Amino acid sequence: MGAQSSLQLEMEGLEDSKQVRRAENGPTCIVLRPTAEDPTKTRFTWLLSIDLKGWLPKSLTDQVLSQSQADFAQHLRRHLDSNTAACAC
């Protein structure tokens, strides 16, 4: 099993301004663990908490973020499938 987590830190001098809006990154976590049915397969769980703080409606940015997560998972699956074929593990 593997896990990764992150949390936003505040840094002096990098506050919002009229020219720049800084997104807020809440607790984020990725967990990889073998499935109970097939230990050669991995369950990928990604919890994402982010507020882009832009002028777009939050409902739209939430939809785009969830789609980008799905796209990432699909590209990761393709990448791993292509590398598994080349690996003699």
TrEMBL record:
> Which cellular component terms (GO) are annotated to the entry?
mitochondrion
Q: In which pathway does it act?
A: Steroid metabolism; cholesterol metabolism
GO aspect biological process, one term: steroid biosynthetic process
From the Swiss-Prot or TrEMBL record, give the protein name: Steroidogenic acute regulatory protein, mitochondrial
Self-association and partners: May interact with TSPO.
Q: State a single Pfam family of this protein.
A: START
Region: Disordered, residue numbers: 1-20
- Where mainly found? mitochondrion
The family database entries (SUPFAM superfamilies) matched by this protein are listed as:
Bet v1-like (SSF55961)
